Amino acid sequence: MIDGYGRSIDYLRISLTDRCNLRCVYCMPEEGIDKKAHEDILRFEEILKIVKAASILGIKKIRYTGGEPLILRNIGWLIKETSKIPGIEDIAITTNGILLEDIAEDLKEAGLTRVNISLDTLKEDKYTAITRGGDINKVLRAIQKCISIGLTPVKINTVLIKGTNDDEISDFINLTRELPVEVRFIELMPIGQGEKLYEDGFMSSGEVLAKFPELIPLESNKVSTASLYKLKEAKGKVGFISPLSCKFCSQCNRIRLTSAATIKPCLHSAKELSLKSFLDNEVLLTSVLKESIYSKPSQHNLECDKKSGSERAMYQIGG
Fold first, then answer.
1. Does the annotation list 28 as a binding residue?
2. How far apart are CA 315 and CA 103, in angstroms?
3. Region 11-316: CATH code
4. Is there a binding annotation on residue 141?
5. pLDDT tens-digit series, residues 147-186
6. pLDDT in the model for residue 220
7. Residues of the chain scoring pLDDT < 70
8. Is 254 annotated as belonging to a binding site?
9. Is 26 annotated as a binding residue?
10. Interatomic CA distance for residues 142 and 155, integer angstroms
C-alpha cells in the first residue's frame, strides 16, 4: 500500500509482549515492569487477524519483537500460522538470543525466515552488566546454531554507547571476517531508558566510519534502514542504522503494532490507533488499518528535539 507521502508500506513489526528476561540499561527499568492483565494483551489469534488484514493491504514482511518474544509459549505455532497467510513472504524475529539455541530449528521449520539478535558487547562481564544478569555464552551459541542450520543471514544488533562499548567496535567488525553475519551498529536513541544515557552516550555512525576507512560501502537497498559496508574478502557485512545523524524517514516502509493492540505508524510519534474494537470485523479492521497506514507521518524530529515523541518506551513498541 502507498501512504500519503508516496512510500510503499509492506512491513509490519509486531511487539508480542512488553516483558523480557533481561534488563538492558538502555531499554528496561532495573526493577522490571508491571505485569499487564491478560485481557489487555493481544492473543495470538487476534494478532493473526491483524496480519491477515494487513496482508490484504500489501504487507509482505512480518517481524515479531518484544520485549522478548521467545519467552512466550507456542511462538512456533504463531510463526507457522503466519506463514499460511497469503501474501506473507518473510517472517523474522528480533530476540536477545538467550532462549534461541534450543528452539531455532523448530522455528525455522515453522516458517521463520530470518533472525536479528541483540548483542551490545563481546565481553562476558560487560554483557552481564549491560543486561543486568544475562549469559553471553547462550547468545553466542545461538548465533552459531542459526548459522549451522542456515537461518541466515544472522543480523547482530549492537546499540552504540560511548564509554560503554565503543572500545569494541573493531572486534564486532572483525566478526564479519569469518562469520556470515551482518553486524548492525545502531545509534542510541533518546527514548525510554535511553534518554538517561543519550547526552553522554550518543555516538554517530559517521564517527565510526571515520575511524574505519577500510570498510567498503555496498550498493544501498532503498527499503533498508541500514547502510551496508564490508571488509575486503569478509564473509559478512557491517551495517549502520542512523535514525538521528542520517534519518531514513523518506524511505520508511513499516508500521508497528504494540502488544496492547495499537498501531503506531511512526516509532517516534505519540499518534496511535487502537484496533481492539475492530478485531471481529475483517472489513472494518482492514479499512481502519488502511487509514492508519495512509496517515503515517512524513518524518520524526529526533535530531531537533533530542527526545522521542513516543509516549511508550522501546520495550513497549518493539525493538
1. no
2. 22
3. 3.20.20.70
4. no
5. 999 998 899 999 999 999 999 999 999 999 999 999 999 9
6. 66
7. 220-224, 245-247, 300-309, 311, 313-316, 318-319
8. yes
9. yes
10. 12
Return the pLDDT at 308.
60
Instruction: State which amino acid sits at residue 210.
Output: A
Contact status, residue 33 vs residue 19, Cβ threshold 8 Å = yes
Whether residue 255 is annotated as binding a ligand: the answer is: yes
Annotated binding residue 118:
yes
2 is in an annotated binding site: no
Q: In one letter, which amino acid is 128?
A: T
Residue among 213, 115, 210, 211 at smallest CA distance from 157: 115
To the question of whether residue 266 is assigned a binding role by annotation, the answer is: yes
Residue 67 among known ligand-binding residues: yes
Residues 6+ apart with CB under 8 A from 190: 198, 302, 306, 307, 308
Q: Where are the domains of the chain?
A: 11-316
- The 8-class DSSP code of residue 2 comes to B
- Name which of 214, 223, 227, 230 is nearest 180 in CA terms: 230
Q: Was 256 annotated as part of a binding site?
A: yes
Give the predicted TM-score (pTM) of the model: 0.92
Q: So what's the pLDDT on residue 219?
A: 82
Q: Is 7 annotated as a binding residue?
A: no
Rounded to the nearest 5 percent, the helix, strand and coil shares of the chain are: 35, 20, 45
- Condensed to tens digits (0 to 9), the pLDDT of residues 19-41 reads 999 999 998 888 887 777 777 89
